[in-house]
Each structure stands twice: as C-alpha cells, then as structure tokens.
Amino acid sequence: MSNVSKIEKQAALIREISGVNPYKCMKCGKCSATCPAFDEMDIKPHQFVSYVQEGNIAALAESKSLWKCLSCFACVERCPRDVKPAKLIDAARQIVEREKGGDYLMADEIPTLLDPELPQQLLVSAFRRYRR
Amino acid sequence: MQRIGVFVCHCGSNIAATVDVKKVVEMAAREPGVVHAEDYQYMCSEAGQAKIAAAIAEKKLTGIVVCSCSPRMHEATFRKCAERAGLNPYMVEIANIREHCSWIHKNMEEATEKAVILARAAIAKVNLNAPLKPGESRVTKRALVIGGGIAGIQSALDIADAGYEVDIVEKTPSIGGRMAQLDKTFPTLDCSACILTPKMVEAAAHEKINIYTYSEVEKISGFVGDFTVDIRKKARSIDANKCTGCGACQEKCPSKKSLSEFNRGLNTRSAIYTPFAQAIPNVPVIDREACIKFKTGKCGICSKVCAAGAVDYEQKDEIFTEKYGAIVVATGFDTIKLDKYDEYAYNQSKDVITSLELERVMNAAGPTKGHLERLSDGKHPEHIVFVQCVGSRCSDERGKPYCSKICCMYTAKHAMLIRDKYPDVKVTVFYIDVRTPGKNFDEFYRRAVEEYGVNYIKGQVGKVAPQPDGSLLVQASDLLDNKQIKMKADMVVLATAIEPDPSVRPLATMLTASIDTNNFLTEAHPKLRPVESPTAGIFLSGVCQGPKDIPETVAQAGAAAVKAIGLLAKDKLTTNPCTAKADELLCNGCSTCANVCPYGAISYEVKLINDHGVREDRRIAVVNNALCQGCGACTVACPSGAMDLQGFSNRQIIAEVDAICR
After folding, report:
1. Distance from CA of A115 to the nearest CA of B (A)
2. Whose CB has fewer CB within 10 Å in chain A, the N or C terminal residue?
3. Domain encompassing residue A123
4. β-pair partners for B156
5. Distance between CA B464 and CA B349 in Å, rounded?
6. How many CB atoms lie within 10 A of CB B552?
7. pLDDT tens by residue, B529-554
C-alpha cells in the first residue's frame, strides 16, 4: 500500500470511527480552553482537528496527547460546531491499537508479570484484544 | 388548433453548455400545434424579445413556449413581451430547462432528452390554454406597522410622510424597542436615547400616525390591498385621556418587587409602571399579576393618589377591527436564553451578564445609575472579560447557526467606553473572528485596541468558575500563542446571540408569511426583493428578517416603507386570474372545497341549474376571485371533479403528464 493511500485510509477511518466531520471546525479553541489535561498534551485538542484534516495521523499516533486525554468529554459537550475533539482522539487511539499487529503480551513475559493480586482475566483479555 | 411558437434560450453557456439547444428546437418543431421554433443566445434580452414579438406577428401565433430559466425569474418578462405583441399573456408557458435541467445535470445527452421532454409538456399545456383576464381589487389607503422599535417607527414615519394613515401596534407599554435600552451606539458613540427619543416624539405627534401600545394583533384576514385586522388593546387599567403622566401613582405603589423588563430584570419596578422615563405614551399600565388590588382586592393607593382620576380597575381588553392595504412587520429581536450554557456560570453569578444587561448597567437611567459596578457586591471591577459568539455560529442544539452580526461592534464599543471612563479597569476580549464590515467599523475596532488598550485574544472561553473570594476564574485558550489561559476577572460579559422575537412565529402564521428554520421572516427574493415577504402586501423591516445593526435597520425600514407606499399609491390592483372555478353541472354542494380553502374564498349559493333539460335548484360552490390565491387545494379535494383551476386545469396537468410519459 502506498503511503498516500494509507494516510487517506487512516484519515477516513478516523472520520468513520468518530462520526465527526473535522471540516465543521471554525477554530474557536473552546476545546483547548476547556481541556483539564491541556498542560500535559504535546498536540493540543484544537490541533487534533487540523491533524485529521491534513491526514497527519502518524504524528497523532506518536503523540503523548493520545494517552493524556482523560475522555472527560468536556470538549465534546461544549464544542459549538459538533466537532468533538475527544471523539477524534478516541478514534486515533483505536487505530493505534488495531495497527499494533503483534501482541502486547508475549507468553514468555507472563512468568515475570505474574502477580497473585492480578486478576487472570486481565492477561487473557490482553491476549484476545491485541493478538493478530 | 393553436398556432404555437417555441423559443429556446441558450442563457449564454448556462443552458447551452449542457443542453443541445438546436436539438431541442428540432424536436419541439415536430410537436402538434407548433408552427415556429427557434433558439437565441439570450431570449430575455431586447433582441430576444424582439424575435418573439416578430414571430407572434408574422406567424400569427396563438400561444408560445419559452424554454429558459425558472418562471420565477422571467415568466413576467415574457408575458409582458407577449402582451405588447398582442397576445394574451396567459398564453405563454415556460419550460424550465435551466434550474430543472442544465444546472443539475452533467451529461449532455441526458440533459438534452430532459429538456425536450420539458418542452413537450409545456407545448401540450399551451395547446389547452385559454386567454385569461385578470380582475381588479381595491386598495385600502392605510398601513399597519407591527412593532414599535426603531424599525417600526422609521417605517411608520416614512409612510406617514408620504401622506398615508399608519397604525403602529406595539405589545409593550411604550414604543422605543431595543434601541431605547441601549446606552450608546456604534461607531459614532451617539447616545441612543438622544437620537431615538426625538423620533419617538415625532411619530407620536404625527397627524397621520396612530400608536397603539400595550396592544397585539389578534387576527388577520384578507389579502394584499385589503387586509382586515383585529387588534387587541390590552387593559391598561388607566384612562389614557385623563392621565397626566405625573408619576405619583408609581411613587406610592407599595408593590415594588416586580423585575423591570426594561432593565432586563436587573432591578425592580412598581406594579403600576411606565417602562422608562421617556416612554411614549407617558401613561402607566398596571401589571395585574403584581398589583395588590387585583390580587387581594385591598390597596387602591394609586387610585387615591391620582389627582386626575385616571385609574380604572374595571377596564377591559378592547378588540377593534381596522382595514389596511399594506402591513409592515417590525417585530425585532431578543437575546437567547443562556440556560444551556452552564460553562459560563450565567445563572450562578450575578457578575456574569449579557451585553444587553451591560447596556443597562452603563446607562444613567439603569439599575446602577450608570456606574460600572459588580452587581453582586457593588464593588468597582478591576478586570472585565468579554466573551464573543456566545450562542452564535453554533451547529449544536444549544445555540444558533448564524452570526448575530452586531456583537463584534458593540463589544468593541463597550470595551472602549469602559477604558475611556475607567482607565484603571483592565479589559480582555476573547474572540473567534472580529467581523467589522461596515463604514468606519474596522477603524472603530482598531481604535479600541490601539488607542484604548483593549486586550484582544483569539480564542474562546471554555469555563467561567465563580471563586470563594467572589471573583470569577476564566479559563480560555489563546490560539495564537497555543496556550491555555487561566485569569481572574471581576465581571464577565457575554455577547449573547440574538434571535427573532418569539411573537413573530404566531404572527407569521396569521400573515401566511413564510419563516425560516431560525424564525427569521423570509424575503421574496434574498437579493432582488429583500424587504418584501413572498406573501403580497407584507413588508419586512429590521431584525425580524435577519440580524442587523441600527443603520441597516433604518435603511431597511425606509425601503420597506417605500415598497408599502408604492402599493398604497395604487387605486386598483390587478388580481391573478388563475383562480378556482366550480363547474355548476358537476358541483353537488358538499362543502369539501370550502373546508380546505385556506383563504376563505369559497361560499355557496342556491341556483337554478339546467342539467340537460332537468331544471332544479342546487347548492353550488362560488369562488370569490379576489380572495382566491390559486393554490389548488380545492381542486384536489373536490370529490366530483367540479373544481378546476383556471390556467392550471386538470386537463392541462394531465396533458403535461401524458406528454412527459409519452
């Protein structure tokens, strides 16, 4: 798959998963004004929209913001244009997870991770979720 | 048999680029009744019309079909052209091969086929057309203006100055409207009252203007030139002829806890009140829900102190009926409710106010006598934050999708006035875009920034949180600096979206005037007929048509007045001859048509009918041609097929359908 078509596909996927049309954004910045995790983020919530518009998904995937978003949905609640940056972030997160390809967890690692306090379901679900 | 001419327009490349006009001409020429067919680049031009006129004369045409743009665009043009050439104008049919064809198709072959079919349908119709003659209706030389704000006042003054009687109906106790509530006006900083109150006085003193305040339109019937309107004069509980406006009653009234509508609920008024000192008329009303006399039967102090004996607790609502030739709607606006915007803490803190409330705070006659102070504790603010676009430009259900248009300018005005009067107060404005199209508008905004040191930050406010110390924590973004800002403010002013006054909705229903999804009244044409409603005889003035500032409102009010004057100046109006007609032999007098008629145009009479030799008295439907608008509802409702619309008869419609399906 060529790089361009992959980017296009990913950008389309983000739109599909989130159900958001990023072109509705009027760049008011209310999402970033509202975000409680703003200081922790490298790419700010309002910037997410233009990253998706431009198809710069790779940068999003590598960003800290992806994992700093609290999913509090304050931006979703207050966005006047129905763009909902948290939904975009959530979609990007899902894409990263699906793209991993390999396991998060190798069977060999289990002995070192074993902890009597740890519920076994957690390990099982880790396998099930990320194994491709 | 008709002798039909077909004229196919290229409309430059609008039609010709997608439709093979030569082919349309060729195909149309083969249709029954067609004796002439030609094409031309611009049929509506003088040369094009000359071609039509020449063909009518040379080929002795009895009907013509013009294949061109929408009939809304040029049907009238071609009808006039035919009339000048000696043809009955109702023998003209338009085949819309632009909006319905060339503009919406890309494939030339398909578009050409469709254009041919549309032409065929129009030809089939003309074959059955009969000459029609429009009737006449009278014009009542009197105008009604609904709404007594600056828009209504200006329209009324202009119509009255042209010599026609005008009635203004205003629902509140005084004329003046929103403009009366403003302190100063942009971009000149004129005091609003100084420029408005003389106009109010002029309207009140004008011999051709009657002002009905505390009154509402109850019912409207009739049609352009001849409207009949019921107006309810709500009981003021004061005899306006006796009242001297001394104000003693208001001073002595013991019920003083009602929120003042004029001051946007920021302070209170007495139960007997005039909205503001310069009110016109200067006659108070009694708010019967607040009045102790009306609630308990005891009190009556106002009556005792009134030296003129003007207080009348027994007064009742009065409904009177008047006839009008034209109606100007000038119902204005209100700010939206902010209940759904919890993040701005409007309902939590007294120090978060709307811009219209700030106007009252800044006004010498307002709740703080013009002193800028926090409404919670009366303290002088050190920092004021303005938030733009609150509820405007929202595609969610909380706000309005449109730009309210006036907020950028009044916020610059407020910021400038505050910095001018209180240089110690810091002013920050959060904006998304600063929109200042208008004469001297951008210069005004720049002055606020450059000369008055107002701090404009691009970004929206996300949250306003009242703090234990009484201050407000404002959390916002600074998009140019890519930062999130947290700052303390003493007051927050919200540039709240405006919406049409809620009274416009039921009024539009009464007027059968169309209204858009935002409750703004629709224009007959957004560019070419911006002050007329599609409903004839209804004119639009001010914000009821769309957001606008005072200069625009005054300009539009004048334009609406001119259109109304143009109507009132006529002695007779020609009526549309495409009205319904009942076939006396088929009608069985069942009343179905009268029940569906939205204009009350159908009545019944008993008439002696000769039905193939059988003579008997029958009840049959009769259409009043002056009232009938030709909507056709009766023709589809009629169970016996007796009702037919002239110019759009059932036979003609079926012939069109047959031609399309052939």
Report:
1. 42
2. N
3. 103-132
4. none
5. 10
6. 17
7. 999 998 899 999 999 999 999 999 99
